[in-house]
Amino acid sequence: MTEPNLPIASIKGVTKSFGATIALQDVDFDCYPGEVHAVLGENGAGKSTLMKTISGVLAPTSGTVFAQGKPVTFKGPADAMAVGFVCMYQELSLVPDLTVRENLLLGAPGSGLGRLKGGALPKARELLDQIDGEHIRFGSKVSDLTLAECQQVEVVKALIRNPKLLILDESTSALNSSVVDKVFDLVRAQRDLGVAILFISHRFHEIEALADRISVFRNGQRVETFRNGDQDYSTIINMMVGQRIDELFPPKVIPKAGAEPVLELRDFAWPPKVKPTSFTIKEGQIIGLGGLDGQGQSTLLQGIFGLLKGTQGTILINGSDAPKSGPLAAKQSDVGLAYIPEDRKADGLIQAQSINENLELAALGRSDLNATDHNIYKPSLDRLELKHGGLDLPVSSLSGGNQQKVVLAKWLALAPKVLLLADPTRGIDVKTKTQIYALLRELAEQGTAILLLSTDYEELIHLCDETHIFYDGGIVRSLRGEDLSAQNIIGASLNIPDVADHKGIADA
Question: How many other C-beta atoms lie within 10 A of the C-beta of residue 310?
Fold first, then answer.
């Protein structure tokens, strides 16, 4: 039995260097049983290196890792798992060509060929059902799952290993608020059983809802550790990036009198997943799409961009009919559509190719552009402050936030009239989010129609001028002004007409 006051995991004086780059510098850090310890910091602050050092992926350059008070030297993640340290990484570890069942058992300690001992699969079924994964079959190939479904499987895969320390690195980044609440219930249950939880998230409302203690990292060092509630958002953000909370989102603008429509949907549909949908985006507007996962909003973006056959209804761009014959036609200058998919790693980039080669992908097939003329990408790369070691390096060498900047830059080089975005800030640090938010507002003011699907209701509230909530394939409520609140977003997502009449909906 672990002593209550003894950390389950700790590091003392740990430094981790990669050549001349110091990722962690003389860090002390503790994880205690029965608590959720959240870690905050922008990309490059040292969070991922901390996780990987504790979970055995990386060996410290100097300093010591302790497991339940005893110094340990991990040769790899299997050694860490053997002492009960289980990590769910931000970049999903599932093997696409294997089934859900095979992935759950893959690499598990126990007997036989990776088989877990004692009823692990029934437990996995029970846990998956508890987080709205009833429809996810064990025999399904992972390649057939959505990103959110993969993340649900990853959560369950970690929990059935009976961890003493559970490390969750952006474990809810692709999930809607309803599923997040249920995952958090499971995490709290683990905490109450005495498990130590190490939790990374860039969503402040998640930290506030779940954490007992919070540590802020900056430039490879632990800046401060404090109890949840002891510091306000402005102070925490200033610790992270030297930026106040009121600077995160650009101010909304008052619509110009007589602003012209840029994008109009008239009864646009893709039965049965998307019901007839109509709305307009005018010059200067950012319009949000919210709702639970799989309610049609993601499919709507794909249909507008021409990725789906058999769509119905009308798309107008600047008053002219847009063709629905496919992405090649959609991205031509006379149409001007651009689409940022939710899974940048799998759908937005080719990881093995260079940054330069990835930048060229969107411009291929545009007769009016020279895809290999890298001057067309430079303004966006400079504007977004891309951090890289050379544009000839594989795009996989970049952090998640910098990879998303490449996805954005390759499409912005086409000067799109309409920008369709699916969760573009998923798993991205605060500073990069702020850059993307400011860029989207600038593009909107310059006349680009911005249609933003987001699972983060803070973005839907503070960035969007109006948000359409989807349920069962159609818009059930459109929110603007004072009505655009977290409570109304959650209530509409659950198809509750009047949240005030339903006291079970938690305040955000």
Answer: 9
Handedness of CA 381, 306, 296, 250 (dihedral sign): positive
Whole-angstrom distance, CA of residue 63 vs CA of residue 344: 35
Question: Which helix (H) or strand (E) element contains residue 80?
Answer: helix 77-82
Identify whether residues 31 and 154 lie together within a single domain: yes
Give the number of other Cβ atoms within 10 Å of residue 254's Cβ: 8
Q: Are residues 157 and 142 in the same domain?
A: yes
Residue 131: what pLDDT?
Answer: 94
What is the phi/psi pair of residue 449, to 5°? -80, 125
Instruction: Read off the CATH number of the domain in which 495 is found.
Output: 3.40.50.300
Q: Is residue 191 domain-resident?
A: yes
Q: Identify whether residues 75 and 210 lie together within a single domain.
A: yes
135 in the same domain as 149: yes
Beta bridge partners of 480: 466
Residue 19 lies in a domain: yes
Q: Within 13 A of 389's CA, how many CA atoms are on the CB side? A: 9
For residue 481, being part of any structural domain is answered with yes
Percent with pLDDT over 90 in the chain: 62
**Residue 215 zone, left/alpha/beta (φ > 0; ψ -120 to 50; rest):** beta
Q: How far is CA 390 from CA 147, 199, 252, 354, 387, in A?
A: 30, 32, 36, 9, 9
Please tell me the predicted confidence (pLDDT) of residue 502: 38
Q: Torsion angle, CA of 350/353/357/358, rounded to 10 degrees? A: 30
pTM over the 0.70 mark: no
Provide the token pair at 164. 């003493």
The domain boundary residue, chosen from 389, 415, 441: 415
Cα–Cα separations (whole angstroms), residue 173 to 163, 233, 278, 318, 485: 21, 20, 29, 34, 20
What are 354-392's pLDDT values in tens digits?
999 999 999 999 989 999 999 999 999 999 989 888 899
How many CA atoms lie less than 13 Å away from 327 in the CB half-sphere? Answer: 15
Domain count, the chain: 3
Check residue 201 and give left, alpha or beta (phi > 0: left; psi -120 to 50: alpha): beta
CA dist 462 and 402 (Å) reads 23
Domain boundary (218, 243, 268) is at 243
Please tell me what DSSP assigns to residue 260: P
- Examine the pLDDT at 470 and tell me if it is beyond 90: yes
Q: Is residue 386 part of a domain?
A: yes
- The residue range of the domain holding 434 is 248-336+417-508
Cα–chain center distance at 380? 22
CB 253 within 8 A of CB 445: yes
More confident residue, 432 or 163: 163
Both 490 and 371 in a single domain? no
**How far is residue 193's CA from residue 1's CA, in Å, rounded to a whole number?**
12
| Distance separating alpha carbons of residues 178 and 201, to the nearest angstrom | 17
Let me know whether 144 and 34 are in one domain: yes
